[in-house]
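Justification of computing resources. Each target in the renewal requires a structure prediction run like the one illustrated here; the chain below, 65 residues long, is used simply to show the kind of job we budget for.
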Amino acid sequence: MEEAGYSNRGVKTRILGFVLMVLGVLDSLLTLRGGIPAYEYLLLILLGAGVFAIGSVRGGQKPPA
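Resulting structure tokens:
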């Protein structure tokens, strides 16, 4: 029976993606509170989601034997 080993791959990338998404959401909420529509922060949120997805894919790969 094979043991599933825990891999740390992609953890830093997922954290970076999460931070980018949170910063994008917070910035967009603050600019909307000021009455200015903020479409450029949507790009930051999407970039963060993309980086998070890359980290998730890297974390799901099997480590080289």
